[in-house]
Request: fold
Amino acid sequence: MTPGALAGVRVVDLADQTGALAGKLLAGLGADVVLVEPPGGSPLRAIPPYWQGAPDPERSLFFWFYAAGKRSAVIDVERPDGAARLDALAAQADVVIETGAPPSRFDALRVANPRLVVVSITPFGQAGPYRDWRASDTVAEAMGGMLYVNGHADGPPLRALGLQAYHQAGIFAAVGTVAALLARETTGRGQHVDVSLQASVAGALEHVPGFYHQIGLVARRQGTLHWTRYFRVGRCKDGWVMHCTLGDWTSLVEWVKADGMAADLGDPAWEDIRQRQLGGGRLFDVLDAWAARYTVEELVENAQLRRIPYAAVRAPEALLRDPHLAARGFFVPIEHPDLGIALPYPGAPFRPGAAPWHVARPPRLGEHTDEVLG
Amino acid sequence: MRPLDGIRVLDFTWVVAGPVTTRCLADLGADVIKVERKDALDFGDRRGGLSGTLMRGKRSIMLNLNDPRGLDVARRLAVRSDVVVDNFSARVMTNLGLDYETLRQLRPDVICVRMTGFGLTGPARDHVSYGPTLQASTGYTLLIAERGGPPAGFGYSYSDLVGGNLGALAVLAALCHRRRTGRGQLVDFAQLEAVASMIGPTLLARAADRGTSQATGNASQEAPGAPHGVYPCAGDDRWLAITIFTDAEWARFRDAVGEPWVRGPRFATHARRLKHAPELDGRVAGWTGSRDAEDTMRLLQDAGVAAGVVADAARLCHDPQLLARGHFVDVPTPEGTTVRLDGPAFLLSDTPARVSGPGPLLGEHTDEILTTLLDMPAADVAALRAAGVVG
Reply:
């Protein structure tokens, strides 16, 4: 196999689910990621769903996704010889990823290995008044400013699909790690990467902090009407569609006119995108009435032919049957020989041409203990 | 020093996703040259606010890429750049002659990151998209919803942020690869795939059970837990997120709440709490409903229970923890004002990322880039400006 971008980088992954994506991204980029598990297995192995339903630490689909491409070594750090083994492993590693409560073990670990990069992913970071507080993904999304703007105006704030506080933290952790590895080429030394779940959510917002600092605006929930007012969900014959009033407006208006449903959309004032922003709600009412004539597929196909960015509002499982993703090989079949199955794993988030993304079977508990610890 | 000192990025990106990639690189020390059109969009203030936060620390050159002389300038800048990033549709850079195959003839170790909606290959490669349409087609819009409720989705283009930050990872990884091998590369970055990869556990679960995804409101997507949700508090649109997974957490919650209902056998075990979750949610909402959100958050956190207020923009921007972390930074502008921007979300102990400067004005650095980087005589710059090629 072609070596990945991070070939030769050794990562010791001590993360629970809050930081599991970081090691997965580094493994995808070609690093050798050793997941250190306690004798009872990583906490991710106890998270459902399970292959064919029954709880089994070797059948957690949740674990499978995050551990795919990592190796597994069992170390009982509660025992003195286990702690020594872990220290020995860290002494020879390039990166340690940890998710324990602050303070980080960075200072202790760097004594034996000044080149070590230690990444700490915690709810609120290593310092500050909330450093000892706890968070789940949903609590971090709440305190990071995401939840308040998700949902309908008359409904509750809604958490994301997927664990997006953990995922943003995992991405920032991976970015910080690779940046620290690049810096090490110059300085010769590792460093500490401090990632906060809350700050990761806050650092991945769009209009919320920007417009508050700019004009004091406190953005509210407004259902599917995007804050730019260029997008809103509408209803077709057989499902939901995402309208878009950016893109080729002239083509959209001609199409709606040809169907005799244009009302005042032909008014030249709407050619100015700022007018379309101000008139968002009114435009979408006209487009909703028109869209009801079509199936979702008809509407989206015809829109894309006219270079109008419409999209079907689909369930995630639609991606498993998406011909475009199939043609690109986004899902990678991974065999589980113990179970006699192969499952399509979601593959690369991006495709480096010279150093392909690595996806491999998730490890059995302790599968690589002997080869890792020697 | 910073990790990307000495790295130059030629930035053709626009809207949000691409600018998020290059702002991360700018924070890490790269010299980011943002190539802009005369009619470049902004959100009202280029120094600060949303535009300033997206463009922080970059230099701006205004180039007319429809003019061959403008394209020539762009190619000469590419020769002086380590990384070239764009987020146009697939065909645009090829039509301009700024694609990887062309640029690597000029600079063999160049790294090109093409951040398209659908990628450079595949039947939908020429489809057009924005963040909200990608969120719709990948499942977020449908499943961020109340149980049985209509789609709600994200309140913003989260996909642009997730894609943008992954784009920065792609650039950093390609720079590592170049250090080791001396070679550049083309990164085919499809926003669709970046966004889809962030619901990996759901996709794998559906591949395994061939089932149908349902919206589950604010229920847990990690370990099963109850109560797990967002509960109303006293005041206008105030809410508190509370998460309890284990019996130990429940015991701490029970003692903090101290009311009769919380002590009863009905909710005494994890299994019973899950079984009676809707009723438990109602009880918790009844308890929080008349209470102050911040006070209740502190009560529960002091007891060791994960609880957090649903922060609106004002509370977020005054959050004591984010402020203590230096998450928001005051950045001086050349006009003598100060703008408050988001800083880097992660902290590096020895070579910290930092905001290099405010957002640039349109074409603010055109002259200095042309004269110092391309050694162009001032008279030539003036001639290009008079011809409308640069601005």
Chain B has 19 helices and twelve strands. The longest strand of chain B covers residues 31-36. The two ends of chain B are 32 Å apart (CA to CA).
